[in-house]
Write a structure and sequence with these properties.
- With 224 residues, this protein is α+β, with helices and mostly antiparallel strands.
- It has helices spanning 2-39, 48-54, and strands at residues 42-46, 56-59, 70-72, 96-97, 103-112, 118-129, 137-143, 146-151, 166-167, 173-182, 187-196, 212-223.
- The strands form two sheets. Strands 2, 4, 5, 7, 8, 9 and 11 form a seven-stranded mixed sheet that branches.
- It is globular and about 85 Å long.
Length: 224
């Protein structure tokens, strides 16, 4: 009888330990998913020093009810290829995150809330990529309403893709902008749209299961 009791006690302890391990694994997986989803597939940020000392700040609305040094778009899961011609015509007219089923769209504003005229540099870059997703990705940047479409140079090295205005600046740098003379209380509007271009010859089944994460960073270059 005592052996059966001991076995029962041991079994209960093992089951309890397994339950704790399972709960821990689930909690870790949830935390990873939470933070990855929180920071999304596109993140924009500025140096906190530039925000505190010079007044450069970000907001999802033109009214700057809440100024930030970092903003993030929501993630798009299981994004499939589309044509850039299928994107909404008013995609630059919605504030904040306004993703579609198969594209990321994010509109934000950068403001000079300080007392000095500022100049800054913005750089849009690839933070992480798998399965060569960047070979068929398109990035449209609307800067104060002016649209430019970026994509990687053709695989054969013959130049930009036909649907693009220009090629990526470098292998991991999509584009760069140098803004001069941003006056006090002035602001710039940006909309970033990211999609997988189905008409690109590099858009093949090899890209299935791939992922892409982009970021945009702003920093002051001078002030007057």
């Amino acid at each position: 009888m005592s052996k059966e009791v001991k076995r029962y006690v041991v079994l209960q302890r093992i089951l309890g330990l397994l339950a704790v391990i399972l709960i821990t694994l689930v909690a870790v997986a949830y935390a990873i998913a939470y933070f990855y989803d929180k920071f999304g597939s596109f993140t924009v940020r500025i140096n906190k020093y530039d925000m505190v000392k010079q007044g450069l700040s970000l907001s999802e609305t033109p009214y700057f009810e809440r100024s930030e040094s970092r903003l993030s778009a929501d993630m798009v899961y299981d994004m499939t290829n589309i044509s850039g011609e299928d994107l909404p015509e008013n995609i630059d007219m919605v504030n904040g995150c306004h993703n579609g089923d198969n594209y990321i769209a994010y509109t934000f504003y950068l403001s000079n809330s300080g007392d000095d005229t500022l100049s800054y540099r913005g750089e849009l870059y690839i933070e992480d990529v798998t399965n060569s997703m960047d070979e068929a990705i398109r990035v449209a940047v609307y800067q104060n309403g002016i649209k430019t479409v970026y994509g990687k140079t053709k695989s054969d090295g013959s130049g930009k893709e036909a649907d693009c205005d220009t090629s990526f600046l470098a292998s991991t740098v999509v584009m760069r902008t140098d803004r001069e003379g941003l006056a006090p209380r002035a602001k710039d509007k940006y909309t970033i749209v990211i999609w997988l271009e189905g008409n690109d010859p590099d858009c093949t089944d090899d890209l299935i299961g791939g992922s892409l994460k982009l970021g945009m960073h702003f920093a002051l270059t001078e002030s007057t």
